[in-house]
Specification:
Structural class: alpha/beta
Strand content: 5-15%
Number of strands: 19
Helix content: 25-40%
Radius of gyration: 23 Å
Distance between the termini: 24 Å
Strand order of the largest sheet: 3-2-1-7-19
CATH superfamily of the largest domain: FAD/NAD(P)-binding domain
Length: 487
């Protein structure tokens, strides 16, 4: 007896990189009951939000695009933010996703009851669906440092992800707190502006590779346009090389130690080659193991610090005061502008919305002690819910697009099983979750993140929130879901 194939309804929260890709893949498998709920007026996610001077991707452009939409026209090895946003907008338009999207609408609550998800937004247009994807990303909630006095500063303050383009920085005394990837891109642009005085407040230096952001000339772009296979080959080579580096962060063998030592040597050599001042060199060389914090790819930051209008301050910040910032040595750094280049809350995930699963279970209670998800995507007691780029996704210096696509394929395979009545609901069993977490706990000890450092890769217990094994092993695990692990 033939059983009719089910046709699901799906909601996707977020029209950023992951949300766009999910909608396209679902459409390609014939699912058209899709609703994308986007809080802003246009798609783009983090590339719509981050518009600070110098914003760019820190993975090579040709590995930062969808497998089904290669881009032969990237202008640089590391594409600028505006160009990446334009790419996502173009793909959004090309696949006609506007018909599925509700803009300027924020999800406030999702409740699972009667075998469906009931979604409440800040409008009166609520929604009920079979499947729910959270595609809010991990870099969407700006994080401010725990420093007192921020509210008393008389000048202008802003987070790098909330850039105010109306503010003129010409002739200003600017303080930048943070030395991660965003700061390394932003600071040289500030130092180049007319008559600025820029003080960089550094808590911990970053390991940095000085790879120049070379432009692609028109002949190279034309070659990629004429030979699409070449674009795919370059993509695969770049993914392979990044996989080898990230693998070195998760293994403790002789060869992997040598890889870490090689990049450490390269980074130190780059500091010494670029920075002439011996005291400044010492301040810029980290003491923790390379890779424990995100490796910064940048070839302009050190040069900028050599400029006469740049100062690197390594005294810890005591407090923000009316005139600027006071460091622990008692010095008051008088400032007109304070910029917080302090990153994002990596544990925000779907927050601030409320997520209620089976029998009234709240995600806040489930995650009170530990943030966990089976295969990074599924949580017991939250049926038919997928958390894209969830905890223990392999996010360390790798292409988020590649990760998201593999997670999407895995989730869609589960939905296919539901369509063909192999599963009535998609909910990870508690015992499967337990085995998954035990495996993660066992593997974490061999990783660079267990070497001891403060990093956004670590949770409140000091455990890595990223994947603690090789890229190859993760890909193998995500190739096909094990239906026995689901109710």
């Amino acid at each position: 007896m033939q059983v009719n194939k089910r046709t699901p309804s799906v909601a996707i929260i977020g029209a950023g990189m992951t949300g766009i890709m999910l909608a396209i893949k679902l459409c390609k498998m014939g699912i058209k009951k899709i609703t994308i709920i986007e809080k802003k007026e246009q798609p783009g996610g983090t590339w719509r939000e981050n518009t600070y001077p110098g914003v760019a991707c820190d993975v090579p452009s040709h590995m930062y695009c969808y497998s089904f939409a290669p881009n032969p026209n990237w202008s640089h090895l590391f594409a600028p933010g505006k160009e990446i946003l334009a790419y996502f907008n173009r793909v959004f338009i090309e696949y006609e996703l506007a018909q599925y999207t509700r803009f300027n609408e924020t999800v406030t609550q999702c409740i699972y009851k009667d075998s469906q998800w009931h979604i409440t937004t800040n409008t009166e247009h609520n929604l009920t669906v079979d499947f729910l994807f959270s595609a809010t990303g991990i870099l969407h909630q700006p994080m401010l440092p725990n420093i007192s006095g921020k509210e008393v500063f008389s000048g202008i303050s802003m987070h790098s992800a909330q850039w105010d383009h109306e503010v003129s920085l010409t002739g200003k005394k600017i303080g930048v707190i943070g030395t991660g990837s965003s700061a390394a891109q932003l600071i040289p642009e500030l130092i180049k502006q007319n008559n600025t005085q820029v003080t960089v407040f550094q808590r911990t230096p970053a390991w940095m590779l000085g790879i120049k952001n070379k432009p692609y000339n028109e002949q190279q772009k034309q070659h990629y346009r004429n030979h699409p296979l070449r674009t795919k080959i370059v993509n695969k080579i770049l993914l392979y090389l990044c996989a080898k580096l990230t693998t070195a962060l998760t293994k403790n063998s002789f060869i992997h130690k040598k890889i870490i030592q090689f990049f450490t040597h390269q980074s130190i050599s780059y500091v010494k080659k670029t920075i002439q001042d011996k005291k400044l060199q010492k301040k810029l060389i980290p003491t923790y193991t390379l890779g424990c914090k995100r490796l910064v790819i940048n070839a302009t930051y050190y040069d900028a610090l050599n400029k006469p209008n740049a100062t690197l301050e390594t005294q810890p910040i005591e407090t923000v005061v009316h005139q600027g910032i006071r460091t622990q040595d008692g010095q008051i750094h008088k400032l007109d502008v304070i910029i917080y280049a302090t990153g994002f809350n990596p544990f925000a995930y779907m927050h601030p919305m409320t997520l209620i699963g089976r029998n009234g279970v709240n995600i806040e209670d489930v995650w009170n002690k530990k943030i966990q998800a089976y295969r990074s995507l599924c949580i017991p007691n939250f049926p038919n819910f997928f958390l894209m780029l969830g905890p223990h996704s392999p996010i360390a210096n790798y292409s988020m697009i590649e990760i998201s696509e593999k997670q999407a394929n895995w989730a869609i395979n589960l939905i296919k099983s539901w369509q063909h009545h192999k599963l009535d609901i998609i909910e990870a069993k508690p015992e499967a979750m337990k085995v998954w977490c035990e495996m993660l706990n066992k593997k974490k000890h061999n990783t660079v993140w267990a070497s001891g450092c403060q990093s956004w890769y670590l949770d409140k217990d000091g455990d890595p929130i990223t994947w603690p094994d090789t890229w190859t092993n993760w890909v193998a695990l995500m190739r096909q879901p094990n239906l026995k692990d689901f109710r």
